[in-house]
């Protein structure tokens, strides 16, 4: 009897497995996504209403919060305070990224949070443009604040350097001598290169006409997966594919399945999806290569070192 039940469960699982990996599911998801989107946006709107004004766009990690805030999309405040410790000179992930994927390229960073990684990628590698999108408008506000702060500090340093070297030249651009020089050879400052926008990537049509050379999706798949299920994940992958130029690069840092467990209860939606998810992170590579159509994958994980505890995740680069 027990065996019959097990067999039925296994058959059911394997049938739904086959079904889920078919990209046909994408067509059925729109209605579901729309309903969930409305529900999730209500959660975000409520959260925003509860936030003290000064914390929108001017994060102050020193101020401790008394109330328990929930972050149903991984939209943590001060995320980089956990990821980048004081003894690190930069986010360790920057060291495994290939300059060629960014220099002079149009890039998209999905789930940019407060924009620190986006800004550092632009600054270190000299992107032609990089757009960071995030579902949470407060994180987008934080990102815009960080960009202003970063440029201000950079200008201050440069001005100091010029003063001490006696140079009268006023124009200030990117540091590290990596200023972006487009085809016309002009120099741009970070404000012209980096921008941030509030978008739910799963749902938005606002990016449909854009094309990118490189798309990043770092530590975001779990949140999209838990909030929009297997269909949402397939939508994410299909959209990324569509938005990439031929030969374009998709850089993904998926969270492992075991980490879904601790976040599954952040909302009813995530709990429900956690129970019904069939596609596991260990299948993502196969899905992206065999179903979505990426040509090659490069595993960058072995070059990654010095990450904070709990953030030793796989990083993969797919080529369209
Ligand atoms: C854990 S953070 C990762 C931040 C950054 N990518 C990194 O790794 O440094 C995940 C971010 O994804 C965002 N996010 C989750 N679902 C999203 C969606 N559907 N569209 C856009 N952003 C989303 C969250 O708001 C959050 O800021």
From TrEMBL:
GO BP term, pick one: methylation
Bin3-type SAM domain boundaries: 91-320
One Pfam family, short name: Bin3
CDD domains referenced in this protein's UniProt entry, alphabetically: AdoMet_MTases (cd02440)
Matches recorded under InterPro entries: Bin3-like, Bin3_C, BIN3_SAM-bd_dom, SAM-dependent_MTases_sf
Keyword Methyltransferase tagged: yes
Top EC class of this enzyme: transferase
EC number, as in UniProt: 2.1.1.-
Family per similarity comment: Belongs to the methyltransferase superfamily.
Protein name listed in UniProt: RNA methyltransferase
Organism: Raphanus sativus
Name of the coding gene: LOC108840202
């Amino acid at each position: 009897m027990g065996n019959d039940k097990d067999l039925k469960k296994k058959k059911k699982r394997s049938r739904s497995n086959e079904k889920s990996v078919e990209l046909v599911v994408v067509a059925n998801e729109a209605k579901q996504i729309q309903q969930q989107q409305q529900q999730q946006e209500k959660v975000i709107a409520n959260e925003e209403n509860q936030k003290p004004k000064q914390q929108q766009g001017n994060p102050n990690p020193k101020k401790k919060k008394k109330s328990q805030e929930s972050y149903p999309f991984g939209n943590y405040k001060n995320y980089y305070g956990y990821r980048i410790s004081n003894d690190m000179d930069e986010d360790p992930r920057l060291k495994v990224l290939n300059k060629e994927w960014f220099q002079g390229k149009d890039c998209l960073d999905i789930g940019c949070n407060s924009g620190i990684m986006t800004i550092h990628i632009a600054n270190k590698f000299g992107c032609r443009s990089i757009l960071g999108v995030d579902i949470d408008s407060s994180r987008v506000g934080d990102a815009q604040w960080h960009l202003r702060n970063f440029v201000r500090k950079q200008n201050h340093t440069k001005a100091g350097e010029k003063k001490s070297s006696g140079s009268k030249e006023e124009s200030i651009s990117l540091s590290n001598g990596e200023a972006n020089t487009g085809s016309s050879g002009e120099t741009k400052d970070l404000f012209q290169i980096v921008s941030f926008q509030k978008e739910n990537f799963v749902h938005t049509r606002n990016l449909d006409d854009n094309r990118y050379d490189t798309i990043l999706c770092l530590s975001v798949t779990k949140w999209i997966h838990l909030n929009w299920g297997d269909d949402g994940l397939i939508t994410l992958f299909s959209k990324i594919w569509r938005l990439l130029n031929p030969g374009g690069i998709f850089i993904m840092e998926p969270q492992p399945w075991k980490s879904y467990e601790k976040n599954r209860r952040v909302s009813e939606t995530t709990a429900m999806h956690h129970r019904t998810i069939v596609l596991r992170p260990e299948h993502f590579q196969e899905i992206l290569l065999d179903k979505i159509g990426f040509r090659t994958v490069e595993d960058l994980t072995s070059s990654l070192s010095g990450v904070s505890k709990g953030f030793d995740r796989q990083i993969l680069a797919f080529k369209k």
